[in-house]
Amino acid sequence: MAEQGRGSGSLGWFRTAKEKFRAFAYGEHGEPKERPRVGLALAGGFARGIAHLGVLRVLREAEIPIDCVAGTSVGALIAVGYCAGASLDEMANVGATTSFADFGRWTPSWLGLATNQRMEKYLTRFTPAKTFEELQTPLAIATTDITAGVSVYYSHGPIVPPLRASCAYPGLFVPIQFEGRTLVDGFLTAPVPVEGTLLLGADVVIAVYLESGNIEEPRTFTDVLSRSFNIIQRHGDLAWRTQADVIIEPDVKSFVWDDFSKTPEMVGAGEAAALAALPQIRAVLRGEKRDSAA
């Protein structure tokens, strides 16, 4: 577990780290010595997170190396399956038949309207892994300490408590008590967990962002809550954009938060965005345009 607050100080640290990597990897004459360590940061977005599967499929088919992954909310759930070696096709099949009842249960209280305790059983559809140490690829899960107001990343020990916390959308799900902290959804402080990949030693970061749209009028309390937080984030801290080397943005604005039945379309949106980004990714891995995100 690693704690990382937000602000200009952390941004400066990441820029310094990136400069050190460049000096090591490219040498005095700008020629690469070895392949950089590649990190993938997966954003949250409820059902829209299924688009991550399309991105992962394209990166795998294009033989883009992924050395570590960080995930927020549904991005963390997808990341666990991927890092455990689960089949992307099987994950898409599970996603297509998912409903709120698979991971949430209405239990109104002063702290939230539902519990996501069922997520532990839901995770077993992807992998039997219980700890980070069992994963094939290093993973960091982003959560938010709602008392301290900072990001807290977990990369060791049990997977389920940090995963549930990362998916504990404020107001909807009851916060998770873990290791003396009160934890909620990682998107509050790490909407795109670039910091998590850097904490795992990534030299180059590919970020996947899932922007929601407001195509239809809100239908439920959850719609109102989700759009309210999205508006806040849209006008808030976008430091992650300066920290990422490549940003992939699948067009998922037309999908609502529980649109699991649209799984093929969302996977397709992820594939299209990743294919479009491949030239830039390859250029960055070759050491070209490596100052574009500085």
Protein architecture, described:
It is built from ten helices and twelve strands. With 294 residues, the protein is an alpha/beta fold. Strand 9 and strand 10 (181-185) form a beta hairpin. The protein is globular, with a radius of gyration of 18 Å.
Short description:
By secondary structure, the chain is an alpha/beta fold.
The structural class is alpha/beta
- End-to-end separation in angstroms reads 27 Å
Largest sheet: 9 strands, mixed
Unreliable segments of 5+ consecutive residues = 5-15, 20-32
Question: What is the count of β-strands?
Answer: 12
How much helix is in the residues? Answer: 25-40%
Our count of helices gives 10
* Mean pLDDT across residues: 83
Order of helices and strands: EHEHEHHEEHEEHEEEHEHHEH
Content of β-strand:
15-25%
Q: Kindly provide the radius of gyration, computed on alpha-carbon positions and rounded to a whole number of angstroms.
A: 18 Å
Shape: globular
Key features of this structure:
294 residues; nine-stranded mixed beta sheet; three-stranded mixed beta sheet; 37% helix
